[in-house]
Amino acid sequence: MGAETKRPLPETVAQFLQGYSPPPGVADELLRPDGKLRPAWQPLIRHLAAQSAETRARAFARGDQYLHDTGVYFRQHTGEGSTERNWPLNHVPVVISGKEWAQLSEGIVQRAELLERVMADLYGPGDLVRQGYLPADLVARNPEWLRPIVGVQPRSGHFLHFLAFEIGRSPDGSWLVLGDRTQAPSGAGFALENRMATSRVFHDLFPKANVERLAGFFRSFRDALIGLRADDGSRVAILTPGQHTDTYYEHAYIARYLGFMLLECEDLAVRNGQLKVRTVAGDEPVSVLWRRLDSRFADPLELDESSALGTPGMVSALRAGAITMVNCLGSGALESRALMAFLPRICQALTGEALKLPNIATWWCGQPTERAYVRDNLHRMLIGPAQSTKLPFDIDAGTALGGRFRGSAHGSVSDWLEREGETLVGQEAVTLSTTPAMVGERLVPRPMVVRVFAARTPQGWTVMPGGYARIGRTGDPTALAMQAGGSVADVWITSDAPVARETLAPRDKGPFLRRQPGILPARAADNLFWLGRYVERAENGVRQIRAYHLRLEDYGPDALPLVESLARFLAGYGLDPSEEPVPPGLLQLFDVSRGCAAKVRDRFSTDGWTALSDLAATAREVAEGCHPGDDAARAMSLLLRRIAGFSGLVHENMFRFLGWRFLTVGRALERADQMAAFLAAFTGRTTPQGGLDLAVEVGDSLMTHRRRYSVETSRETVIDLLALDAGNPRALLFQLDVLMAEEARLRPAGGTGLPEAARRILLLRTALAVASPEEITAERLRGFRADLAAISHALTAQYLS
Amino acid sequence: MSQLYDISLRISYEYAHPAGASRTLLRMLPRALPGQELLAGAVSADPAPSWRRDGVDFFGNPTCEMAHDMALSEIAFSFAGRVRRARPVAGLDLSGGLADLAQDLAACRSIGPESPHHFLGASPRLPAAPEIAAFARQALPQGVSVRAAVEAISHRLNTEFAFDPEATEVTTTAIEAFRARRGVCQDISHVMITALRALGIPAGYVSGFLRTLPPEGQPRLEGADAMHAWVRAWCGAETGWIEIDPTNDMLAGADHVTVAYGRDYSDVAPTRGSLRSEGSHVTTHRVDVVPV
């Protein structure tokens, strides 16, 4: 890049930047105060300026396509709950020079180490309070200072292992910390996704732009986590509050990326002082938890008693040194705004150095002098709750900006300060720097903050060379949040020299090591089992609905009693096609299938997820304005092809790991049950004419029947083909063979005796294998359904609970 | 002068549907305090737990963690033991006014378990309640000492509250009990703590036992048929903590045996459990405090 920056800027650049004008008195990332382009940005801007509008649009679309294909989303909270929304990527990254970054990193490392020492004191001797560096009242009122954690000696020797810092640039060009993220920082995974998307947008520029790679940071942290395990074959896991949390996508993504288990509290139990994950093969030890759940919800016994998310005994296990938590419970106490008022002095006292990276100037209004200062400088203050962990700019009704309340009338601000001073802080209302965002064909300056990440490794703290930038929708710095329509961007740290390509693979080529065998939490297995069942149920529904509409088209609604009995049969499943051609119950089946997959996204390939999402979306589309008869039948055929696509992915591309077996078992059980139900209803003596042909059609066995029996359907031929034929993948007996084989593979080695599920499968399989078609009456078929339900219960009791 | 008590406490649960593995945190053992000595006694469970660990919590209360790995349809947790309680001497009121209290607090640089700072702000079960704060300000006599203020609030609550075990449950909030002016010792104590904190007086929750049968010629005290609760309030650096029982409008004395200190009930609940159960369950408490 060195040579390139000396080249004169082409005229296109000037044209491209025309009209880009940061507001006065504000630092800008792209332009120096003298209006010149910053050197680090030149390659990117040259590249953009040289593109035609069409080329640029195509490039941006590549990034959006990537995000769409991988299914990145965020949760938009509205008055009535929340929905998943598209990921709002600002295609133009933020560029920061390597030299500036190195200096910033030093400040980050110092701050991380300082926070570790503050936490060790708050949960240890309490000297900072005793010596007057921190007011006792402030600590005692901090809702995240968790008394049960006081006295805990972390097994790893450290409380903090992974931190994030929100930083912003002040008008004089220097960086400021706006917020410390110590609880369970999110965003590192999203930063990776932003990088993936942005490197696709700039696929020709990125490889030669000397941008520092991110993989090395993740590799170091992964190895550090693995190194923290106890020496007992125990595992590392990521603890998530579950799919309804804002950042669940990221938890699943990181778990997949780093190869760690993703667990929820209900997967875990503390037994004999050890933390165990409940798996389909019994309890397995876990000794390192990367916690993405707020501390106070982690244990209903010792922390928030109302938490439904926690694992009882977690605190006890932590206290006993049975687990390393990343970060230790209670780390959220360091996020409180008010702490920033005291950190500069604490840093001086503990390290003998000043903060290399200052935080936003903060005054705690519980002290008379500070309170008076805030009152006298109201015009340049943000005043808000002292214990809040939000950024100064995340303003709500309880905040005053420049001496005016944002919300309703509160009386005068100075009365408020006098009355509730100890619960308030004043923070300097700095103006954030702006960075370019593409709006239409033009770059416009928008306010920005960057989240940077630091991880502890055996060699000390390491800072991710990149970050997660948030950019305002308008010039208003209080609207940075995605919830307020803000966008996010990749952060490029550029070096003067070419950078090494990094991957997650180990740096040193050691001997080949097979990873620990995968284990499957019981909850994940349960979701995969039900995913199998629901998809199969949906497929059967689609076949039956198609058969209904085909007959409706051919014969009309009243011509055949068969049409009516099929509608009645479907109504029993909530799928009555006579009311709406594509019954809402069918759409729900696709949605619950997707819901099951959503709970195990870390175990699901991106392709599988996309196929399932497409399926649910397609079903919704075809349902819109669909007409009974031929139109609906064609819609069902389309859905069947999509389902076949999903099944193909599952069958052809999924590794035969434990989870696949549960999915397969779920499908086989459901298929058997559906077939038994259909045969019971349409091969009985009272079945209207055409029932047998209908069964063969729904059983997808028309060709086979014609070839094999070369006669009209009879009750015997149909039962023989659809119930008793071990070679027909739709037949009952075939499903029992699948169940028998898969159940045998699920069973842990060395067990003696036949478990309940295996015994029941064997009994039913034998009954089917020795039966002749005449014996398979409707009553017998109903009996099979009861047997299948008992098998499902036994499997659930044995593996899934 | 001291008094010996034989104390037994039994809390039992019956479940309609036998539940899975459970874990319980118990705070049932009377703590050792100046003027209170546990001579003998232990906490136990029936059936016996699969795992057990005894410890001490942040506020210095003895705890006992138990795990039962089996499904249980019945379980009982018990304490039985002998306690010696000295008759406290009710000293003169040397506490200062509320203004002095704020200075004493500011001078107290501690976040240790005895620090009054823990007992000023909101706690898990006791958020700030403007209604109770207004009541407290209105009930506060002008220009009195902190201790006199505490006694005045206790007296006022005792007068206004009807002791009524039917009116509330263990989950009733302070503001609900305050509005109804009914409840048991837990409710009155919660309301009083909220009121004192609103006045800037650090106040905490005490769980314990009350002598079951009164000395001859004295009336039976309210709350003796279950575990009892009262209030401790910090009256300044000089006086320190005093304990007062608003249910009976008296300073806690030789009839009161302390089990645990906390900010509110959630810190001192005798059992905190995690039993996963379906269907209904029945809880029974039995307490006996017999002078010997």
UniProtKB/TrEMBL annotation, chain B:
**Residues of the Transglutaminase-like domain:** 177-248
Query: PANTHER family, from UniProt?
Result: BLR2979 PROTEIN, BLR5614 PROTEIN-RELATED
Entry protein name: Transglutaminase family protein
**Source species, please?**
Salipiger mangrovisoli
